[in-house]
Amino acid sequence: MNLPRARVRRPWRSAAEISALLIAVVVAFPLYWMVLSAFRPAGEIESSEPRPWTLSPSLDSFRRVFEQQEFGRYFLNSLLVASAVVVASALIAFLAATAVTRFRFRFRTTLLIMFLVAQMVPVEALTIPLFFLMRDFGQLNTLGSLILPHIAFSLPFAIWMLRGFVKAVPEALEEAAYIDGASRARFLWRILFPLVFPGLVATSVFSFISAWNDFLFAKSFIISDTSQSTLPMALLVFYKPDDPDWGGVMAASTVMTIPVLIFFVLVQRRLVSGLGGAVKD
Amino acid sequence: MPGTAPRPGGRSGAPWLYLAPALVVLGGLLVYPIYQLGLISFLEYTQAQVSGGEPTTFQGFGNYAELFGDGEFWRVLLATVVFAAACVVSTLAVGCALAVLLTRVRAVPRLALMLAALGAWATPAVTGSTVWLLLFDPDFGPVNRMLGLGDHSWTYGRYSAFLLVLLEVVWCSFPFVMVTVYAGIRAVPAEVLEAAALDGASQWRIWRSVLAPMLRPILVVVTIQSVIWDFKVFTQIYVMTNGGGIAGQNLVLNVYAYQKAFASSQYSLGSAIGVVMLLILLAVTLVYLRLLRRQGEEL
């Protein structure tokens, strides 16, 4: 909101800026503490006088994490699941969003309402039937059992959000393409897809996070074959409620958080405009 | 407006071709499991049926009768509703307040707050939960030191454990509200606000009479999303209270259903809980759809 500058009086603005900075520090503090604890040398975490700095950073906790568990493998598993979900749901959602915005057909509105309702389904409640479904298809203990449900669950929101982006591409462009002799497929992939790409990026944040963070499905479907575990499961190996290895937990947490952070920082700008666009229309 | 122009070769089959992959995936992995969930909730389905090869028997509403006759279920339901409501209200209050704050400051503080919020948003629920546990750890956590609470345990008492989870949930979910509302405020034309300011409207008046009505669609979206997310919190409760707290004092419906199904193999009871959750969220959705309709939104 660009309030007329003169009306925001100077002391007020200083107060607002100082509080904004203070709040930023508070909000960032847990992450700072996580990284700090991960780099603390053995014994320093289990101190009753925690200091907000460390004088001798060490990589011991990280080393322990990567040695004790097949952590690298879990990392790759998580990455594989998340990327598969992001790519598949983006492509499928792109096609579906094109269908519901660029065509008029029977049941179109019904379908849109269904997509909206589908967003609200508590996917966690479906763990039980999905467990049996995966078992019947022999997918238990495979990464497929994590990928498939997450594609399904991220689709409705992705379609809903992409709708705005597809809508924003002018009709005239499409007609011009056809007049120039482009086929429908050519228009779809060579013209529409690149134009909607920013929207796809914003959308993929949500599917990436839901897949990367998934804890319930991993816990329920990957029951005996630990080589198929993902990061959230591996992390909890270090977290025994009675005697947690805080250094290990924090190192593993740091490793798990960094890819998402990078992803977020990369798409930050598009995320803000994407959300604005999605809710505006 | 959706396209109405004729398409080359515009047979009516084309949209369905585009929709086919989405419908197949959703049908197989969303609609069918919902049907199965309902079905299992009417059957006798325990370890004996799952791996013992015993025939499943139809129970009618037997599982629901058992569930509704259990005082624990009502206690958990109440806790879920109150906890979710507290989370939603706190998240919205913090998110909206900070969105307004973002509009009042210059680029540097704004960027700092935005980045911190994105960091919180990006933090996976599992890591967020463990980090907050460490922060509030009775022996090694900095919070108890700062507040001078000695070795007070936050997870021991029912309410303090819920409060701790609430803080974590608000921390990781206010950024979505903040960013979305901020994007919405930014989309309000500056002239409208200037006109209001020139007419001598106070800040509060501008917010209440100009911004709030214009932001209503966005506020509805973030409220509904928050309700849905907070009503089905799983990871935070599961990790932070170690599976539902001492003697299940911190159970919420989602964790309760999981414990029933996968810890005690009462799959049909777990499914019945799932159906209850589904129905509650469906009711919320219907309210949402009515609100959208009333705003005259074109789908």
Automatic annotation (TrEMBL), chain A:
Protein's UniProt name: Carbohydrate ABC transporter permease
Question: Which terms are listed as keywords in the entry?
Answer: Cell membrane, Membrane, Transmembrane, Transmembrane helix, Transport
* Transmembrane annotation, as ranges: 20-39, 74-99, 111-134, 146-166, 187-212, 246-267
Q: What is its main location?
A: membrane
Q: Which CDD domains match?
A: TM_PBP2
Q: Where in the cell is it found?
A: Cell membrane
- Looking at the record, the residues that make up the ABC transmembrane type-1 domain are 75-267
Tell me yes or no: is Cell division among this UniProt entry's keywords. Answer: no
Its membrane topology: Multi-pass membrane protein
The yes or no answer to whether the keyword Phosphoprotein is present is: no
Which organism's genome codes for this protein? Streptomyces viridiviolaceus
Give the superkingdom in one word: Bacteria
> One Pfam family this chain carries?
BPD_transp_1
Family, per entry: Belongs to the binding-protein-dependent transport system permease family.
Provide the leader sequence positions: none
Which InterPro entries does the record associate with it?
BP-dep_ABC_trans_perm (IPR050901), MetI-like (IPR000515), MetI-like_sf (IPR035906)
